[in-house]
């Protein structure tokens, strides 16, 4: 696992955006897996700035979703599809035809999950998947004790997650869906390059367990240790629990370039 320690979230966003730009230069129609939430916003801001300046041609890029609420009306502003269109697809100058996501309103959700896994495979697989991490080590909505071989599936949101997400629904927990579709850990591991960004002291314990702890279903993100090309980008606060922080700094300083796909 490649670990890069950066000064702050903006630096992490710029670094990852540069890696995506390099990927698009090599493979203009790359399939980029994106995550929602506040953590990846610096990546999207930096990448869209590169597109606007003419430094990146994203016109043929494809975007796919990590997860989606079940049961929100089509076009609901807080659906993850709407969020990705608003924060990623539109700023990059792309259209909805470039976008892949699971159907959270399907009559048969199980079939919709299987169909999404198949759609990703039919698209040639995800070239680079962006990930965040929860304070308990979850990735996507794969909570602790999720199978490390799991595929895209429906999950029930914990009460705490619904409470946390109520801020996006006018602080009304009754509006927060009870279920989501999420890529499983096995599905995530199919991507060619995994890039996890974590910022803030609240993520330090989860980052340490992910990078330096044993591979365990109790820490779903630890499955990244099994991947052939996983990069973890953390700011100084999120790196505070890493015993090998100095080693990671020295290693990256000696090789300040991203490993090729």
From TrEMBL:
Alphabetized Pfam families for the sequence: Glucosamine_iso (PF01182)
Protein keywords: Allosteric enzyme, Carbohydrate metabolism, Hydrolase
Catalytic activity: alpha-D-glucosamine 6-phosphate + H2O = beta-D-fructose 6-phosphate + NH4(+)
Record-marked site positions (Part of the allosteric site): 146, 153, 155-156
Enzyme class: hydrolase
Its EC number(s): 3.5.99.6
Coiled coil: none
Regulation: Allosterically activated by N-acetylglucosamine 6-phosphate (GlcNAc6P).
Active site: 67, 136, 138, 143
GO molecular function annotations of the record: glucosamine-6-phosphate deaminase activity; identical protein binding
CDD domains: GlcN6P_deaminase
Domain Glucosamine/galactosamine-6-phosphate isomerase, first and last residues per copy: 10-230
Pathway the protein contributes to: Amino-sugar metabolism; N-acetylneuraminate degradation; D-fructose 6-phosphate from N-acetylneuraminate: step 5/5
Biological processes per GO annotation: carbohydrate metabolic process; glucosamine catabolic process; N-acetylglucosamine catabolic process; N-acetylneuraminate catabolic process
SUPFAM superfamilies: NagB/RpiA/CoA transferase-like
GO cellular component: a single term: cytoplasm
InterPro entries, per database record: Glc/Gal-6P_isomerase (IPR006148), Glucosamine6P_isomerase (IPR004547), Glucosamine6P_isomerase_CS (IPR018321), NagB/RpiA_transferase-like (IPR037171)
Family: Belongs to the glucosamine/galactosamine-6-phosphate isomerase family. NagB subfamily.
UniProt xrefs under HAMAP family: GlcN6P_deamin
Purpose: Catalyzes the reversible isomerization-deamination of glucosamine 6-phosphate (GlcN6P) to form fructose 6-phosphate (Fru6P) and ammonium ion.
Name recorded for this polypeptide: Glucosamine-6-phosphate deaminase
